[in-house]
Amino acid sequence: xxxxxxxxxxxxxxxxxxxxxxxxxxxxxxxxxxxxxxxxxxxxxxxxxxxxxxxxxxxxxxxxxxxxxxxxxxxxxxxxxxxxxxxxxxxxxxxxxxxxxxxxxxxxxxxxxxxxxxxxxxxxxxxxxxxxxxxxxxxxxxxxxxxxxxxxxxxxxxxxxxxxxxxxxxxxxxx
Length: 175
Description:
single chain; Herpes Virus-1; 2 domains; 4-stranded mixed beta sheet; 3-stranded antiparallel beta sheet; 5 helices; about 20% strand; elongated
């Protein structure tokens, strides 16, 4: 993509930002009586337009909704290195599992660790900082462990357990 196309895409993306929550607007996109846009989530909590302070109308901005549906959106973790561009239907799902996203250490549930790491670095962090609590398995068979707390990773998923367990006992900890 050349510099002009990239600049136009960035300008379009900035026009799709809600002036209240600063997130990209998704349909339905509401208008105030002077024509300013706001996302549907914010119309529930904001009574007047943040730009001109007039009331919102019941009219939707159908043209902008159509543009929003065709636009490709950057991942919310772009600053951390994710280069994915996705449609409005797929961006939220991607953001939830993106390896460039931050995640709390599974031991935060027990106030044992307050570390926030990139999802892609979680295994390295847990292995280095909590090796006594960490086990990696490569099949659905889980060895019998002691009654102590353990962090288990299998096929890239992390689980936490506090007893002798089976896979049904584990809770996946991507919060």
